[in-house]
Amino acid sequence: MSRWQSQHSQYLWAAGKIAAQLAPPNVIEGRYKVITPQVWQDIYPEQDPYLPDPIPDRLRAYLLLYPYRLHIPEVYGVCQVSGSSILLLQNVPIDAQGQLSPSLQEGWEDASPTRQLYWLWQILSLWSPLTEQGMAASLLYPENIRVEGWRIRLRELLSNPNAYGTSADQGQRSQKPTLVTLQQLGASWSLLARQAKAAIAPQLERFLGQMQQEDVSLRNLQTVFNKLLLQQAAQQSLRLQIASATDTGPLELKNEDSHYPTTQDLQDSRLQPVGDLNSHFFIVCDGIGGHEGGDVASNFAVSSLKLQVQALLGEILEDVNIMPPRSVEDHLIALLRIANNLICSRNDEQQRESRQRMATTVTLALQLPQKVRTPQSSTANSHELYIASVGDSRAYWITENYCQRLTVDDDVATREIRAGRAYPSKAVQRPDAGALTQALGTREASRLRPTVRRFLIDEDGILLLCSDGLSDNQLLEESWPSWAPKVLGGKLSLEGAIQQLMQMAYQRNGHDNCTVVAAFYGVSPQYPLLVNLPELSQEGETINLEIDPNFLSFNGNSNGKHEETSTVPPEELQQQEDFYLELEDHEVEEGNIAERSELGRETSNRNPYESPELERNIPDRTTYEPSEGEQESEAANIYDLDINLDFDERDIYGGEVEETEEREIYERSSPQRYEEEGEIEEGSLEKREEEAKAVPDYPPVAEKTSFQSGFEDAPELQEVDAWDDIQEVEDEYEVEAIEEWEETQPTRPLPIREMIVGVVLLVVFGGVLVVFWPQIAPQLPGRSPDSPSQTEE
Contact 659/600 with Cβ under 8 angstroms? Predict the structure, then answer.
């Protein structure tokens, strides 16, 4: 199998009406097995398929549109059936099981409002390049448009707006392309607009009305639609984790790669305000091998672009208007050309010629924090992600379901394909296929042609930038299933995944330096958990805590917070509160013991968090800021910035426990500690000790467990009323302490009233522990279902 064929699924799309009539079981030319109509499988992929030479015009459009390979299929081969030619396409929306991806119409109903708009935006973005090749009709048929996660993909290219489902050639370019208008495109969206989500349906209907105007321009339509898209995307939260690594490789004496942010940059960012450069800008540069001073060139490029992007971000944050994608792309191209001129100037100063000139590749990612006003009259991050590249360093977007390359290499093979001079499978077989055609520092800025694309972050995923030391030999395309789902599922840290990749690159691509920068973006809702963060490992260990999504119900808002809703009727809540009050005051009457014990068992089975009086804002994740000593000892290279990237306000969760609640905590645990911290009035300690001596019938409260102590020590963890419901009941360790104390006391008969109270308390405590212990135990630090208790340890 050739290198090119190994990059794609072995399933092919057979274009045209004749192929649609061939059903399984069928084997065409003894090689192509018919799986379903128009979905074929090459059973001999190691053999080169037949390709006509010279290249027919009807196939050239696929080659010229190669830069849009994320959305458009590629030519694989041609076969003959009954004297007719059938075009076979690869890089098509067919999964590993041979199933077509859902059509735009099929996936529309289940898509979020943001994704519905994003799909339509991609169609608008493809309109110009497809129109230039006479293939805009490909966008008029929802059945020809397939969806795979965030992106749209075409099954084939169509030149005739009336050809779909007819005897006209499909997947072919007609001699006289039929004119297709924006009004026709708008008409093809009419059904989608009627079935759109309620949040966007009215705006989408108005937009389609604008598309029907005769004098409408594509640029104006894109400006209006872009604003609508960003307003919807900004209503989602945006979380971020970053990790990076670099290595010289086994054969290299020096590292010619440069990147940002480095491990040191990530360490320093913990002490800097949210919104710093390294939370929005990532870059990887690879000094070209064979050129003197490659490491100098890559460092020049990183340093120059950091300063320029910092200035650009400052301008964007001060501008109240939304900068359109075309303007941002022009800005990034200008920045790259400035960096190119700096390297060229140094080459000229040192009189470097030919291969002595310093040069470097570059791939950068800019998460643009434009302030977008949402329908809720707040401003939030626009979720835009721009990727710019020169050379063969790459960018990938990886989720649990796919790994997508976002960049196109600037090498000889790509040049021949996009010029329409060679098929992809033939171009990669050239001896010089991998030779670079452009890089920073090799030519004057006017001849530099960077590639810039705009994407939108609307799903959880990993953005990965790397040098060719990692991407060579299809390493990422083949290895991502072994680590990406674990990272996205919280079972593997991002840093751990990077180290695995570096090790694989060392073994498989050890001929070159290897550098990677990865950013984990999260937009999905997060269920809050109360954890004792000070006791979590500081060695980069990942601790997974899972919670049943049905345990809590939330209403999300645009700031990434969650507000809890109640499902317990007020009258039942009042019964529960009255019951515990009577227990505390020892007012249990003898005739009501059985009835109230039953009530205790009933209420103990309810979720203590489900209460209308416990409404509060719960953060996406609980954050913890270590002390200076902990910061100095921190050795991990991955830092969960865990920020809400909204720039008009910064949500900081946690804070001090209210004074009244704090006093209750200390009174239940350790008066001595309360006094040591200077938070008890003078004389109060002696008074409480005297009161305690006056009531000898009750044992002293057990010493705080480590979980309670850690919880009270962490001001970032807000004490919530729901936790008091559990704290009011003696936990397992306090019960053990009470039993030990009772064994040391002289035996004396207990009054009947106290015996009754004791029986009721034991019944209630036992019921609560049985019900809630499976949910509480996994959240205790250092505990697992199989581990011994802290007391035993």
Answer: no
Write the pLDDT tens digit of every residue in 753-771.
677 777 778 887 777 777 7
SS (H, E, C) 445-476: HHHCCCEEEEEECCCCEEEEEECHHHHHHHHH
HSE of 613, CA atoms in CB hemisphere, 13 A: 12
pLDDT at residue 156, rounded to an integer: 96
Please, where are the H alpha helices in 367-422? 412-418
CA-to-CA distance for 353 and 356, rounded, in angstroms? 5
Of 495, 487, 425, give the one whose Cα is nearest residue 266: 495
Which is nearest to 442 in space by CA: 301, 614, 245?
301
466: phi then psi, degrees, rounded to nearest 5 = -155, 160
Q: Which of 182, 187, 194, 206 is nearest to 108 (CA)?
A: 194
Residue type, 651: D
Looking up tokens 């919104």, which residue turns up?
275
The end-to-end CA distance of the chain, in Å, is 59
Is 369:647 a contact under the CB 8 Å cutoff? yes
Give the HSE-up count for residue 147: Cα atoms under 13 Å, Cβ half-sphere.
22
Return the DSSP state at 368.
Answer: E
Note whether 361 and 288 are within 8 A (CB): yes
With 0-12 / 13-18 / 19 or more C-beta atoms within 10 angstroms meaning exposed / middle / buried, residue 85 is: middle
How far apart CA 585 and CA 589 sit, in angstroms, is 12
Residue 739 binned pLDDT confidence (cut-offs 50, 70, 90) = low
Q: How many CA atoms lie within 13 A of 139 on its CB side?
A: 29
